[in-house]
Design goal:
Helices cover 75% and strands 0% of the residues. With 120 residues, the protein is mainly α.
Length: 120
């Protein structure tokens, strides 16, 4: 009987250890990444307009962009409940993915808003 109980306990341990492996749904991961991309693009556009209206030039504007992206990363992590591994493969996907992707949108709207307010 002791051998049988030991084998049952071993089977339970092996089945529990397979359940400890995180599994992800590919569609949910893709949807989460799409939300991150759209959020960063939207906030890049809004940040560019704000930087242009406030009259930021040169390095100050780029520092403002990196500040907006850092706040966006913190907001996305907070939205995920600070448990990033429940929704994404790694923390790099939330913090760094799309960080430079919105830079061109930021610069476009930054220069457009600056020109509209301060030049014309």
């Amino acid at each position: 009987m002791a051998g049988h109980n030991d084998s049952v306990a071993a089977e339970k341990k092996s089945s529990e250890s397979t359940n400890d492996i995180p599994t992800f749904n590919a569609e949910n991961l893709q949807s989460n990444m799409k939300i991150i991309y759209y959020s960063r693009t939207f906030l890049s556009i809004i940040g560019g307009v704000i930087a242009g209206i406030w009259g930021f030039t040169s390095l100050t504007g780029f520092i403002f962009y990196f500040l907006v992206m850092a706040i966006t990363s913190v907001g996305l992590v907070a939205k995920a409940g600070f448990s990033i591994h429940s929704y994404f493969n790694s923390w790099n996907q939330v913090v760094l993915d799309g960080f430079f992707g919105g830079l061109m949108s930021f610069v476009l709207f930054w220069t457009f808003a600056y020109d509209m307010v301060h030049i014309f």
